Amino acid sequence: MTDPFAALAAYPRLLVCSDVDSTFIGQEVIELIARRAGTEAEVAAVTAAAMRGELDFAASLRARVATLAGLPVAVLAEVRKEVTLTPGVPELLRWAAEHGHVVALVSGGFHEVIDPLAATLGIRHVRANRLAVRDGLLTGEVDGPIIDRAGKAVALRQFAAVEDIPLSATIAIGDGANDLDMLALAGLSVAFAAKPVVAERADIALPGPRLDDLLPLLELARG
């Protein structure tokens, strides 16, 4: 059986592309927003089904976002304060910085919450969805193309091209069915606290709760 880490040892510079909700952070942002709309339980059930691969992601996202219509955009500032990094993320970022690697984020969540977080962490590459706003209120729609399963793979490919890093030197980390195309494209695919459909297809499955459990495996492979 081929060592999934072996090919990475040939590259001095890697791109680590991580899903955000329930992977890079400990929450599902859309559920935090839905709590303000009184639709958290409904939204959480749809999210779980989508992550298991039982629903089309784009359609499920539109349905969940529709429940947010009428919320003041100011609730997003409240939500940002509730977001917490997954244990091990600071260590992963420090390792990447020390070795000259690049960390990118790609999400079925929302730029409005992820961008400020990424900026504080020095992460330059972010791809996510945007919430439509009119007169200071969420309209219940997504603004622009939806970043779904295929969109995440496109983002990984584009981030790698911008950084001049071959796809074989990329690591993709995710937990849900909408991460599968990105994981399949990457040089190394990592399922983190993932749904069974993801864990069974990834090169390696980490149970959590720490994201930096990946680092000893990478260091061992790279000597």
TrEMBL record:
Its cofactor is Mg(2+). It holds the Pfam family HAD. It catalyses: O-phospho-L-serine + H2O = L-serine + phosphate; O-phospho-D-serine + H2O = D-serine + phosphate. Signal peptide: none annotated. It comes from the Bacteria. It is an enzyme of class 3 (hydrolase). InterPro entries: HAD-like_SerB, HAD-like_sf, HAD_sf, PSP. Pathway: Amino-acid biosynthesis; L-serine biosynthesis; L-serine from 3-phospho-D-glycerate: step 3/3. Keywords: Amino-acid biosynthesis, Hydrolase, Magnesium, Metal-binding, Serine biosynthesis. Its EC number is 3.1.3.3. PANTHER family: PHOSPHOSERINE PHOSPHATASE (PTHR43344:SF2). Belongs to the HAD-like hydrolase superfamily. SerB family. This is phosphoserine phosphatase. It comes from Nostocoides veronense. The lineage of its organism: Bacteria, Bacillati, Actinomycetota, Actinomycetes, Micrococcales.
